[in-house]
TrEMBL record:
UniProt keyword annotations, A-Z: Endonuclease, Hydrolase, Nuclease, RNA-binding, tRNA processing
Keyword RNA-binding: yes
A Pfam family hit: Ribonuclease_P
Enzyme Commission number(s): 3.1.26.5
UniProt name for this protein: Ribonuclease P protein component
Entry's Gene Ontology molecular function annotations: ribonuclease P activity
Keyword Endoplasmic reticulum carried by entry: no
Amino acid sequence: MLARQNRLTRGAEYKAVVRRGARCAGANSITYVTHSSDDRAARFGFIVSKQVGSAVVRNTVRRRLKAVCAEALTDVRPGADVVIRALPGSATADFFQLRDEVTRCLARRAA
């Protein structure tokens, strides 16, 4: 689980990362990353729309993405803000597919 200091909480923060962030797309998700010079922990946010599926499916996808980001937290540069947008294909993807895709994007953009 991600601690409060590692989460984006405001809509304006999400919007800033999506608009200005470097983008990495995969089959099941799109990852946006911005960097700041602030000396703080990396922060993560997740966008899982109704196109992904029912509430149960969306929450499952969100929990999987959170677990992947908690694993990758040590590899992400301090001061980075990351937003992961789940695409409809993420509903049928298993945990390992999501993990491989997200860690690849984080290695390219947030390391």
